[in-house]
């Protein structure tokens, strides 16, 4: 009787470490690596311009919530997220634009960080294949994809709390 009432609990793991690397830390790692590799488009309008010309090059679209009362920015973000979902680009909403600036080391700039596109890793330019090589993704990027897949199709994208440091 007791054994029937016990429910097995699945432990979340990222890169083989049981809950030691929360999703906020994964986002931080992916953003820093992509920044070093020059695979980012920063800003809402530059992101929209990039996607209008190349919707297959983005892996993640990281956004922050629009400031209260800014309906124009909110509308642009909603349309951008709908476009991303339609084109199989993973959307991630984070809690703070200032934390994004800190993560990327741009605290003193007035550049808009409300949206950041993370592009796929660069592939061999001499290859004939037009396919994206998913083996070139890091384990952290794969963990982030798993997180996004688990939240795919939800009407509201969960807001991820980024680490303070």
From TrEMBL:
GO terms for cellular component: cytoplasm; nucleus. Signal peptide: none annotated. It comes from the Eukaryota. One of its GO terms (biological process) is regulation of cell cycle. PANTHER family: FI09246P, GROWTH ARREST AND DNA DAMAGE-INDUCIBLE PROTEIN GADD45. This is Growth arrest and DNA damage-inducible protein GADD45 beta.
